[in-house]
Specification:
Two copies of one chain form a homodimer. Chain A is α/β, with parallel strands linked by helices and about 280 residues long. Chain A is about 35% helix and about 25% strand. Chains A, B: One of its GO terms (molecular function) is carboxylic ester hydrolase activity.
Chain lengths: ~280, ~280
């Protein structure tokens, strides 16, 4: 493990680490923000999953989340969005391959092997984080776009492992939109049952994890709203199964980090209520 | 004038414009944040001057300043750091030429002509901003590193034009450090009197503009602290002339935007007190 960055920030430290992932069989970079409270004892951890094309840098430099994490005493962990490196398969488009792991375990070639972001996020990364005595095993998860899909699906499939979940502009029904269909066909093949296991709307329809309320913010000027995101499908599924959902259409906001920065404070307060009982 | 970006942010709008600068004889990009209050009537304007290598993007994407501007009802204007374009002279290093305008009017070739950032910031940019009815002519100025030098020198030379000034990690004595000596020799030639007119410590020693208190934050882990920044020279000059100075050495902080993000809220509150009487 190597510490690449170590920067004072809101009384705590914004670090970036490189560690070897056994699951992904490559080196991975991870941003970790330690709030000032981490010096006194273990803090709960909020995992942030980024969207297409992102590395760990987008969230840690643009979201302004450290201020709120410092207020609430929450560690922020922002991993990269896929396995990386010259030995890792890739594709031409921005929406498949490196930078586009979609938080699942690929079964198809050439992706199977390295592309196991589901196992990395659910198991290996928390184990690595919680080896630090500053981090407790109390976990929340949040993300944006492809990472919103990742946060919602992972939490719904593992309600025993996450106390809270929220998302910005998530791909709620990847099986029904171009980004998801392209990625799922490549990573998972034609087996639609495998697709359903990574589709938020399909998971909600199963009626699982209803103890986990969902907070979703979506800009109504988002350029991907109708083609890729389709939050009304999530609303319908939650209504049909009485899954608690707070879905907010934010007027004027787009798909950018300016949107995330504007509301990440409310998301962190939401998570703090579940993670710290605030 | 062309609007390149228009993004909802904290209830207001983060815009980026391209406009023709007559003073610099080139196209310039400018970030402008309009807080929600700008819809009701004219708001005071805080000008942000960035450091070496920066464009308008660094501040608007990384500082997290919009939140505080929205709280206080202040417009933020973040210009580029030099004239730009293929017809504009440049140099190999990051610390001279494009991205390194040093907020002065160059008298030497090949820089004279385009490199007139002093006139641009003091006169042309405010006139352009204040043509918008949302902006008042009540101005504050703030900046980082080379831009901290710009903010302090410009405010000290124009106390009738700026009600407030502050800086992060400013180059307070450019005549005495390598960054400033290289730039001043290139842009201003050997005339040391011309150098003094753009040197914060020299301006303070003249005892001018003592009605304008200075707020300066400096990280004590800043990698440029002893070689380029030397805040103790500012402290000595202010003590010698009874110039009001709040100089804070912030333990652990470096030269990055993580430092700026951590304290920009306090700077904007400081400016709001002068600009809005808060």
């Amino acid at each position: 493990m190597q510490r690449l960055e170590h920067r004072a920030c809101f009384g705590g430290w914004q670090d970036v680490y490189r560690h070897h992932s056994r699951v992904l069989d490559c080196e991975m970079t991870v941003g970790v923000y330690f709030p000032p409270q981490a010096q006194q004892g273990p803090c709960p951890v909020l995992y942030w999953l980024s969207g297409l094309t992102c590395s760990e840098q987008n969230f840690i430099t643009k979201a302004g989340a450290q201020r709120y994490a410092a207020e609430h005493g929450i560690i922020l962990v922002a991993p990269d969005t896929s396995p990386r490196g010259p030995q890792v398969a890739d594709a031409e488009g921005y929406d498949l391959g490196q930078g586009a792991g979609f938080y699942l375990n690929a079964s198809q070639q050439p992706w199977a092997g390295h592309y196991r972001m589901y196992d990395y996020i659910v198991h290996e990364l928390p184990a690595w984080v919680e080896a630090d005595p500053a981090a407790s095993d109390v976990r929340g998860i949040c993300g944006h776009s492809m990472g919103g899909h990742g946060a919602l699906t992972i939490a719904l499939k593992n309600p025993d492992r996450y106390r809270s979940v929220s998302a910005f502009s998530p791909i709620v029904a990847p099986s029904q939109v171009p980004w998801g269909q392209k990625a799922f066909a490549a990573y998972l093949g034609d087996d639609r049952a495998a697709w359903r296991a990574h589709d938020t709307v399909e998971l909600v329809k199963l009626g699982i994890a209803r103890q986990l309320p969902l907070l979703v913010d979506q800009g109504d000027a988002d350029e991907f709203l109708d083609s890729q995101l389709r939050p009304e499908l999530l609303r319908q599924a939650c209504e049909a199964t009485a899954h608690p959902l707070t879905l907010r259409l934010q007027p004027g906001y787009d798909h950018s980090y300016y949107f995330i920065a504007s509301f990440i404070g409310e998301h962190i307060a939401w998570h703090a209520a579940a993670l710290r009982g605030e």
